[in-house]
TrEMBL record:
Domain (DNA/RNA-binding): residue spans on this chain: 238-304
UniProt cross-references to SUPFAM superfamilies, sorted A to Z: TPR-like
Record Pfam families: EST1, EST1_DNA_bind
Native source species: Coccidioides immitis RMSCC 3703
Boundaries of every Telomerase activating protein Est1-like N-terminal domain copy: 104-222
Feature: compositional bias, Basic and acidic residues: 12-25
Compositional bias ranges of the Polar residues kind: 1-11
Gene3D superfamilies documented for this protein: Tetratricopeptide repeat domain (1.25.40.10)
Name by which UniProt lists this protein: DNA/RNA-binding domain-containing protein
Region (Disordered): 1-35
Transmembrane segments: none
InterPro entries recorded: DNA/RNA-bd_Est1-type, Est1-like_N, Est1/Ebs1-like, TPR-like_helical_dom_sf
Amino acid sequence: MDSSLPPVSSSHRLDNHPGKREPVNPRRKRLKSTQFTPVFQRSTGRAQVYNRRGTFEAWHQGLRGANRCELIARCCANCKRIFQHSCHATCRNLEAGAGPAPPEVESRIWDSHMRINSRFRKLLLHFRDEQARKKRPVEERKLKHQYLKFISGAQQFYEKYLKFILLRSKVAPELAEAAAELQIVPVDVPTPANIAQELRNTLIESCYSTFIRLGDLSRYYQTELVADPKRREWNHVVNYYALAGSIKPTSGIFHNQLAIIARAEADHLQATYYLYRALCATESHPTAPGNLEIEFRKILNARSNGKYQRKCTHFLPAA
């Protein structure tokens, strides 16, 4: 080393830099990550203890839940845009007299909604337990808020689409009762004679399916977002299904949906009645036999365990 260089000052040595850690005192007992750390609160003047690892895990879990909610919300927005574009194209085709869109389009759109709805319901299932709701209240609140936006957006679109159909209900007299119930005044729409019958049948099918889907969305709102079963209100759900039945009474789908409501209210008598109606309809529901078998098994198991209770709900229509 060159002796002509000036000596290094003690304040500029590497072992005296400001960021250097102090030597660990071997006599000092260090806290483990699983132990509790005291924190002084200025407001109360007391020391509060919390688990450092537990706090970090709760924060990280809440962040992951928020990211899941945002991801599902983006999927819902994309699905809604595709839905609106497809249905606007269908409406333009009907107005131009080019003929109705194939029913597979509506089915694919509804299936996309149901896939997102299944994701939401799977996440909401984790908060059925009261302990989970207490541990992650922020994640539950954000998740329910996003699910409410999803349900509301789907309902708004189907209502607009249904209004478009019912405004043209003069083409199909079967839609007159539903239009009068919703206070919609039909308008005269010129339709070519060669597609009048085809357009009429398609409007009936589309209106019937839309009423069923609106009832399903309202039912999901009650079952997933209203925690207390005693506070659930089924009036809107039943009205949608009843309007669907007035349009197409030969179908058994709306009877099957009414049976689902009765089952949610633990009314086995009404559920069995509507399942039989769905089975005996001219266009019987494909899952009615299996649902009826499941319902009988539940009744027999509850009766053998001594938990069967007779219950009759009066909010369901008699027919």
